[in-house]
Amino acid sequence: MSNVPVRIVYRSGEGNLTWAEDDDVLRQALVDGDGFVWLDLTIRAEEDASVLRDVFSFHELTIEDCVSPRVDPARIDDYQDYLFLIVQALTAYDSERELVPVEVDFYLGRNYVVSCHREPIAAIEHFRERCRRDERLLRRTPDWVLHGLIDAIVDEYLPIVDAVDETIDTLEEQILERPDTKLMRHIMLAKRNALHIRRATVPQREIMQRLSRGEFSEFIRTDVAIYYRDIFDHLTRIDYLIEAVRDLADGALNTYLSVISNRLNQIMKVLTAAATVFLPLTLISGIYGMNFTQNQFPSFHDPWGFAAVVGSMFALAAGLLAFFRWRNWI
Q1: Measured in whole angstroms, how far is the alpha carbon of residue 60 from the centre of its chain?
Q2: Tens-place pLDDT, residues 30-73
Q3: What top-level class would CATH report for the domain 272-326?
Q4: pLDDT of 200-209, one tens digit each?
Q5: CATH topology of domain 6-260
Q6: Where in the chain is the domain with CATH 3.30.460.20?
Q7: What is the pTM of this model?
Q8: Rounded mean pLDDT of 243-251?
Q9: If DSSP states are collapsed to H, E and C, what string results for the chain?
Q10: Does 235 have pLDDT greater than 90?
């Protein structure tokens, strides 16, 4: 076995639990037909998957999925001796960053569960701690343990959905208080995060439906299948909630565009009023600035002529402003 982090939980046929990282314990557990083993494996390179190839003899296509850095959509494959599942876990939510789904691969056999991932998964760590506190979770069948692992992953979705919802509410308040171009990027980021959640939710919901209706009865017992139905219900609820969040994001975007458009209209109204006021003043000053003889302009030689022209310009401007104010144009 390589130096990659490996955690083994072995429950013998007699009911004794062993927490180990020993290759010999793993081989002994697989031979024990009445026992159960959960192997949690972190895979970052090809050599890290040697245990899957050498000890379990899993199909090469499944190992390729485990090793590949690409995040594949959720799916389930039946290889007769075991089931291979791909689900997606979500990283911790940050309103300033895009959500990055993390692929988690599961093998379900008659006396084992293998979980593979490229980085630590908080949901799996939480489930592991629960098992340490309550070892009864590991004294049941492999399909029950797989349910616990997937359920822990899905439970991490709802807080993230709520966080995205709160982010959008905050953005709407900021839009109404002080619209800013940076808000557009945050709104689009929230929409992309909602899309990431939905892309992870819908395929997994279909998988849980297949597991809950007895399609894989050799690996999923009837009394356990109903618990997969519960995960299906949770995913369905999350799908409904994320659709509502996407509608809220669209509403926030429309609100932003409306506020910006209204703000632009107000600016254009002020500029138009200012241009309208200065237009006749510019006309008067332009006329008196024409290259004609001085005798052709009235009051040009009078001492009060300049003051009269300027005063009339101020009076005209004040009159226009008063008229605009009376019509509620400004």
Answers
A1: 32
A2: 887 788 899 999 998 888 888 899 889 999 999 999 999 899 99
A3: mainly alpha
A4: 999 999 999 9
A5: Beta Polymerase; domain 2 (3.30.460)
A6: 6-260
A7: 0.79
A8: 89
A9: CCCCCEEEEEECCCCCEEEECCHHHHHHHHHCCCCEEEEEEECCCHHHHHHHHHCCCCCHHHHHHHHCCCCCCCEEEECCCCEEEEEEEECCCCCCCCCCEEEEEEEECCCEEEEEECCCCHHHHHHHHHHHHCHHHHCCCHHHHHHHHHHHHHHCHHHHHHHHHHHHHHHHHHHHHCCCHHHHHHHHHHHHHHHHHHHHHHHHHHHHHHHHCCCCCCCCCHHHHHHHHHHHHHHHHHHHHHHHHHHHHHHHHHHHHHHHHHHHHHHHHHHHHHHHHHHHHHHHHHHHCCCCCHHHCCCCCCCCHHHHHHHHHHHHHHHHHHHHHHCCCC
A10: yes
Q: Where in the chain is the domain with CATH 1.20.58?
A: 272-326
- Cβ proximity of 37 and 10 under 8 Å: yes
Residues 92, 166, 198, CA angle at the centre, nearest 5°? 60
